[in-house]
Design a protein that fits this description.
Elements lengths: L2 E6 L12 H13 L4 E4 L11 H11 L6 E3 L3 H4 L19 H10 L5 E5 L2 E5 L10 H15 L6 E4 L28 H5 L3 E6 L6 E5 L2 E5 L5 E2 L18 E6 L3 E6 L7 E2 L1 H4 L5 H6 L15
Parallel strand pairs: 1-2, 2-3, 5-6, 6-7, 7-9, 10-13
Antiparallel strand pairs: 1-11, 4-5, 8-9, 11-12
Organism: Ancylobacter tetraedralis
Protein name: 3',5'-cyclic AMP phosphodiesterase CpdA
Pfam family, one: Metallophos
Length: about 300
């Protein structure tokens, strides 16, 4: 028997700045008409929670409107972004992950890493923003993952987290903030190399992609809220489809994935915000305000 899971990501919801609420309402109507066994949210459900904590509270309220169980992994607009590797200068102007932001996420949403068994499968959700943070939760997550994988037995495993593992290949050495940094991949690489992980689900890039590398299928969830450079005029080609929507996944002996792009959805392209290559215009338009308790980090 195959379980049905709806995959939604990067909704960027906000009570104060409801730029992308319309697409969420269309999504909600579709899920209510045909409820899955689970909705899996791939992060960035909040518009800008590091600056506006209520954005995450509002995202939680919207998830609770779903007619079925749901699970979520955090994104950089929920808990802050990874700190860059030491040899890299951080020019993004984006808040980095902190204990205060993790605590707010856990109090509002729940655990930021978890395991859930659905029929024959085990789904393991991870917080990819912890990687390289040096926070105590990073070591806790590593220990959790080893335990969760040790309990699997012969059950197939799906991993879910916000950022894709890589852009082109697992062994690539280039530093690209849109995916896991090379050093951070040590957390999951043994499990990918072993072939025990059959499916990896991620969001963040605001484009859909479905590729198999070795024994593992890597699926990028599209954003429900917006795309960037839909025409491919200036943003690097990541081999993904730049359209808003969501995915319907069936997990059984086989993996079946259908992309949902109803005509009612509004495809918003925020190229004008992002063409400069930084996050600063996004921060300005989403109303930047420092989260209480964050240090005065000049890189923020």
């Amino acid at each position: 028997m195959a379980s049905t899971i709806v995959l939604v990501s990067d909704t960027h919801l906000s009570r104060a700045r409801p730029f992308f609420q319309f697409n969420w309402e269309i999504f909600l109507q579709a899920v209510q008409a045909n409820p899955p066994d689970l909705v899996l949210a791939g992060g960035d459900m909040a518009l800008n929670a590091p600056s506006h904590p209520d954005d995450l509270a509002y995202a939680r309220e919207q998830l609770d409107r779903l007619p079925c169980p749901w699970a979520m992994v955090p994104g950089n607009h929920d808990v802050g972004n990874n700190p860059p590797p030491p040899e890299t200068v951080d020019t993004r102007g984006e808040t980095t992950v902190s204990q205060a932001l993790i605590d707010h996420y856990r109090a509002t949403i729940g655990p930021d890493f978890w395991a859930r068994d659905i029929d024959a499968w085990r789904i393991i959700g991870l917080d990819s923003l912890l990687c390289g943070s040096g926070l105590p939760a990073e070591a806790e997550q590593a220990s959790f993952l080893e335990s969760a994988m040790a309990e699997v037995g012969k059950r197939p495993v799906a991993l879910c987290f916000h950022k894709p593992v890589f852009r082109d290949a697992l062994g690539e050495a280039d530093i690209f903030q849109g995916v896991w940094y090379p050093q951070a991949r040590r957390l999951i690489r043994p499990h990918l190399d072993s072939g025990r992980v059959r499916l990896v689900l991620s969001g963040h890039t605001h484009e859909g992609r479905d590729e198999t590398h070795g024994p593992t299928r890597h699926v990028w969830m599209p954003s429900l809220a917006f795309v960037t450079d839909m025409l491919g005029e200036w943003r690097p080609n990541l081999r993904g489809r730049r359209r808003v929507g969501w995915l319907r996944l069936k997990l059984g002996d086989e993996i079946e994935i259908v992309r949902e792009e109803p005509d009612e959805l509004l495809t918003t392209d925020i190229s004008g915000w992002m063409r400069s290559g930084s996050i600063r215009l996004y921060e300005a338009f989403t109303g930047h305000r420092r989260f209480p308790g964050l240090p005065n980090d000049p890189g923020h």
